[in-house]
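Cross-posted from the bioinformatics board.
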Amino acid sequence: MTKAFKIVVLAKQVPDTRNVGKNAMKEDGTVNRAALPAIFNPEDMNALEQALRIKDKYPESKVLLLTMGPGRAADIIREGLYRGADGGILLTDRKFAGADTLATSYAISMALKKIDPDLIFAGRQAIDGDTAQVGPQVAQKLDLPQITYAEEVLEIDKTKIQVKRRLERGIEIVESSIPIVITVHATAPECRPRNAKQLMKFKHARTLSEEHDNEHNSYLPLYTMDYLKIEEWGVNEIGGDEKNYGLSGSPTKVKKIENIVFQAKESKKLSSSVQDMDSLMKELIASHTIG
Amino acid sequence: MNNIIVYIETDNGKVCDVSLELLTKARSLSVQLGCKLEAILIGQAVEPLVPLLANYGVTKAHIADDKRLENYLTLPYSEIAISIIKKENPQIVLFGATSIGRDLAPRVSGALNSGLTADCTSLEIGSHTDNKAAKTYENLLYQIRPAFGGNIIATIINPDHRPQMATVREGVMKSEPLRRPTECEVCKVDVEKILNDTHFIVKIIERHIEEKKIDIKSSSILIAGGFGVGSKENFDLLYELAKVLGGEVGASRAAVDAGFVDHARQIGQTGVTVRPKLYIAVGISGQIQHTAGMDQSAMIISINTDASAPINQIADYAITGDFSEVIPRMIKAYKNNSK
């Protein structure tokens, strides 16, 4: 019996918040978001690797990337294709704007209903928000079980999957039926690098919007090569109740944002005195660097 | 009616610290709001923990006791929590931001279609005016949390949806029992009525608590030592500072080669590259091989006896002095100023 799984990897394009060094700070000490590169969320990369490993074992399997974001988020779908995925879908619609985790999960779950996968992988959390909520909320919306903080898929067959989870102070090995939502932890193996063959094959993969905007200079028109087309889905494609999307579907609102101001611009010289240490610690606590 | 509910997490038959911290905070919020404090306690043979909850001001404990609930499982635990919350209709529900709380809370919020804020470091009660709708909300829960990789602090509210839900980080709030325990009513949950076999499709095959792996890459605070630290024993001070600040210990290649620390802690070109929020370089001169692996740190503090050490050029704060004097003073100053 040949085994094949339809696997979806949920991925997010995020600003590289780990890279907020001095050059990413504005004059006033606040974060210059524009200066941060947009990257494939790191733990979603770990999730992609877990999906690709299943495809290694069962080559008939298909790995699809699903991301929600603006047009440029197609970049991370291409990145996934270069590393071994088979296709991707970009969820993009003005009606999704302003979504909190709940409204995001609703949109993603509606798209997943349309795809109907056997397995759904996602990173544990995205580095811009660190909430870790979308995975479990998607599982809940689809009424599927969830396994969070996965480190490794130990075994899989047509009906069940065994996964090693990383907890705060230990590990747990759990078994479940499929379909299931699995969120992958940073301690899971890193994603394989780009593959030269995949890179050549998918170099011109793009969305219809990119095609219209002529962002991708390619001599290959999209319609000649079906696999090059990155699908774009909006509310019209996935259906659902419009009031559950975007701002109106988001119970949480941001009341206030305070930028943490980094005061030290140039090296401040301190002695080892008790007074100097006391004022240093006060500054670090006040700037939320520690404590 | 519209009380505050805290989800009580247990570990090996004991209530976790984070739950006691939450109860302490929730108690003061309940005084402010003029409501009562309730708790959800799920597990096996958990009823003996009720007196402790009463010590922390809980007036009603919802208990789900079943041998199948010995270890945390997402589906049955969330199903029980959802059913209690639907019945009690609280205005606020709080969870610890632990492996369990962060697995459970989003599942519960999804089912209730209520908002959830992760990893709060502070909770307050306040009002909010929606200018567009010309509407003012009183007594909202301000859920305050770092975001954007710790570079901003955001205050989140849920104006229209109830309950207002949040997970709260461990160790950020005080834990204080009452002088006299409250009267605590025990409400037993009929587990059989809520659960069926489909809730147990995820099974735990094996479970063990291990020693934590050294993981300097994901630590937001690093205390790194160089050859200047002088010996393996001297590194103990660095471990102590790391423990107090909630960070990890790293090292330069010179310190690793000298046998002061394990190779897994090496930072630099031949080790790992790190970008923590705070990097404290102790007795590290700052050769390019080392700084290449840490110069993207958001804040760098150097402790060195040599004021002209190259590391001071990239440091935000350069402390000139002997680390064996400096570190104990830092620890003392931190303890004096925190909380």
